[in-house]
Amino acid sequence: MRTIEIARKLAQYKKNKQAQTAYIAALEQGELTPQEELEAASYLFVSKGDYKVAYSTFVSLFNRGLFQAELLDLMSQAFYFPNLNKLRQRYEENCRALEKYPYLFRKDFVPFEDLPIWFFPYDDKSYIPYYPAESRFGNHLNLNHPVIDRYFFKDLENPILAKDVLSQYQLEYLNDTVRKSEWVGRENHIYLHYSDWSQFCAYLQVLEIKKLLQEEKLVFLIEEESSLYPIDFKARFGIDYSQYPLRPVGVREVKRMIWHTQLATHNGGDFFNEILYEHPNVLALESIMMQNVEEVIRQAKFSWKRDRAHFGDKHLQSLLSHIKSPTDKDFFVAAFLNNPICTRFIDPGSRIAPILLFQPHFPNMVYEIHGSKDSKRCILYSKQYEQIRKSPIFRQFKYIKTFTPMRRITTSYAASTRFAYQLAMKDEERSHVVNDMLTTRMLNRSFMVDPTDRLYQDSVLVRFEDGKLNPTATFTALAEFLDIPYTESLTHCTTANGINQPATKTRVGGFDLSTVYRTYDEFADDDDRAFLEYFMRDAYAYYGYDFHYYHGETVDDAWIEEKSKKAYHLDSFIYETYFEACKGAWRKELIEKNLPLDDPANVKNVEEQADVQAQMRVKKYQNNRVQVANTLRLGLQFVNKQLQPLHMMPLLKLNPDLLENPLYR
């Protein structure tokens, strides 16, 4: 029996919920006749099921030329006419505001009834446009979708000129980012060119234009008026902006953040910080421990409330004094603006307010797999990411661009193991231990993101190897994504100590390629790296990495069991550091009991117990690797909390014409 037949039976027996589920399944499976599609969508609509599925089906049928009269009448009655007065009211309000606005030179607004686009509300945030002259519906339209997909600030030599900006989010972005002409001492309006007057008028039904006019930053150029760009404001309006002094950037002007995420440890993040550090439009610091940031802000808020007259130095006071109730973000931005390391390269006369680069750092990014009722679907959970997501700093930035460096996963894993082992060896008390870096890395799938998560909606992944081997192509593309000009500063590495600092024992300088090809064989084995490659094979395929250790062999229980026990280097580090840590703990216990440390019996007892504990730890980790591997073998689907699938973070696309070397594989 076909699924739609099952749905009909369920509907016949008044089992609405089950019938709705069956009708949705039938639509998803396809292979329905148009009449059956209409039947399924109509049932969902009338029975108050998932109206979006019904809505989308109606639009699809209409655009295929099917049932157009009936569907247009149904959709108009259900979606358009109930919202018509609201659309008309907004249109008239925008028209009244623009009639008085000095920098819109055309005022013959199209009568509401003659507008070429009808906007059918889809939900509280979006519309489906309808073009009556063409008898078709357009694509789903969210005017507040938090993505900047245009390169507005490629060239800051001249005032900004942008064509056909019909996104509320992007209009506000321009208005919030471009500084007033009076603040930069030169003509600095935002020139918005609209190629079709009637289309511009139509969008006045759904855009909130009035609030963007208050500071008079915008100049509207309609159709052939683009030839007026740029306007000589002194000649035309008698305004000489050159008489105004430069105004320092204020705390509330900084509304954009670059979130430089930590995909994993030893992933090449410092290299990207050093590239962006000297950019004239970026407020930058090197990576900062997230815990330290939150503590500094807590202390700042406490000190401000206790005695703001003696808060910080005079410059910091001046940055915050005009803000009645500073937020966490305000204190955070003020700290950057008050730090000469952050502002030393900033262009004080730039046309745009700077964007703040923030790389919150954690000792490690640890992910867990949480199951759902459906055993094949699971939710990724990270305590570290939850700390980011809930942070007031991130919540209070209006515009966030997210980029994530990725280094070859096996290289990052081996380098992380090296760091953990060396850290443990430097600890005189031997309290630091090496944990199971292999399983931690295998579970870290932070390259998979929730497309509805605001922090990842405007995000891109950048390969570390591309930045090293093809810096021009990589940083030209990254500058475009971040919407900052490509400047000479992006051609070299800069730290607080200067430009292109030489390599040290702990740091490789500049564009040195050794970190691209180094494999850290003294800290990892071929078997554990094959294990990691197999279980990260989707990331390898999507982000363009070839396998170096996994050679396509069949993966079964025996293979997993074997590989899980052949992480010889890692397991030896785990054993050694746990052995020393256990010895230290037992020695402290002997001291507390006033027992002699040099008694051979005590020494032997301590070492035997430490040996048992360390071996048990290694065995525990090996067993856990098998368990995790078997779980991942199920072909899990990673989903968000609403059980919608996660997506791979988009890879930064490079211009082939700018490549200096073949792409790293």
Outline the structure in words.
With about 675 residues, this protein is of the alpha/beta class. The protein folds into 2 domains: about 5-65; about 250-665, P-loop containing nucleotide triphosphate hydrolases (Rossmann fold). It has 27 helices and 21 strands. The strands form 7 sheets. It has a 5-stranded parallel β-sheet with strand order 9-11-8-15-17, sandwiched between helices. Strands 1, 2, 3 and 4 form a 4-stranded antiparallel β-sheet that branches. Strand 18 (about 495) and strand 19 (about 500) form a beta hairpin. The protein is globular.
Q: Class of the largest domain, according to the CATH hierarchy? A: Alpha Beta
Please give the alpha-carbon distance between the first and last residues.
49 Å
In the CATH hierarchy, the third-tier topology of the largest domain is known as: Rossmann fold
Q: What's the alpha carbon Rg, rounded to whole Å?
A: 30 Å
Query: How helical, in percent, are the residues?
Result: 40-55%
- The parts where pLDDT drops under 50 for at least 5 residues are none
CATH structural architecture of the largest domain: 3-Layer(aba) Sandwich
Average pLDDT, all residues: 93
A few lines on this structure:
The chain has 665 residues and is an alpha/beta fold. The longest helix is centred in the last third of the chain and has 33 residues, at 600-632.
